[in-house]
Design goal:
The chain is of the alpha/beta class. The protein is globular, with a radius of gyration of 18 Å. Helix 4 packs across helix 6. The protein has a four-stranded parallel β-sheet with strand order 1-6-5-2. The chain has a two-stranded antiparallel sheet with strand order 3-4. It has two domains: 37 residues, no CATH class; 165 residues, Rossmann fold. The chain is built from eight helices and six strands. The structure holds zinc ion. The site of zinc ion has 8 residues, from helix 2.
């Protein structure tokens, strides 16, 4: 019955590539042509071993991150999460934790793209996702216009662990989720406080990473 419903809905609303609207086999995916426009990250000795990324932050990957973040294209999150889910390291006792957003920015944007990605990856990989563990207590400047040292300073002490959820990360392998990693300043700052709060190890999964 479920299969029949899906056939009927695919007939009425056929699955289209999220980027170019060509017909594809499944909803929330990219077509072969757009897939080829992504510069997928393979083995890269210059990237930290603890950061897992789908693609380099250029071309279509950059456009996708931009659309998710600034053009309210939240449907794109599932398309990105499907690719990110494949990059998540398999480890028992893992927990996904999104990079949090300050309440002011959350009110302005209406959603945290890292939170959307993390909860979708959690559902796809059937693994726990804890949205409330990390919070951003200081509304920092937009990182994109800053260099590495400025970003590090900008983000220093900006995050906190919510005591109510702290127990969920003790002895866990935490996987930080974010849409993009440019200078690693945010991921490093989050890792620092997660380890201090009792996480056994911390790695990160992002959709796009700046080429080292
Ligand atoms: Zn396409």
């Amino acid at each position: 019955m479920q299969k029949l419903c899906s056939l009927v809905s695919d007939f009425i609303l056929p699955p289209l590539c999220h980027n170019c609207k060509r017909l594809v086999q499944a909803h929330n995916t990219l077509c072969f042509h757009c897939w080829q426009k992504l510069e997928f990250v393979g083995y890269d000795p210059y990237l930290p071993e603890t950061i897992f990324s789908v693609a380099y932050f250029s071309g279509l990957a950059r456009e996708m991150v931009h659309k998710l973040k600034f053009e309210d294209d939240v449907k794109l999150a599932l398309c990105m999460a499907k690719l990110m889910a494949l990059r998540v390291p398999k480890h028992p006792d893992s927990v996904l934790i999104p990079v949090p957003m300050h309440i002011n920015k959350l009110r302005e944007r209406g959603y945290n793209q890292a939170g959307l990605l993390a909860s979708m990856i959690g559902k796809l990989n059937k693994m726990p996702c804890e949205i409330g563990v990390l919070s951003k207590k200081r509304d920092t400047k937009n990182q994109s216009s800053l260099n590495y040292n400025e970003r590090k300073k900008n983000i220093l002490g900006a995050f906190a662990i919510d005591k109510m959820y702290a127990a969920t990360i003790i002895n866990s392998h935490v996987i930080i989720v974010d849409d993009v990693c440019t200078t690693k300043a945010t991921i490093n700052e989050c890792s620092k406080i997660l380890i201090k709060a009792g996480a056994k190890s911390v790695s990160a999964v992002v959709f796009a990473v700046t080429r080292p």
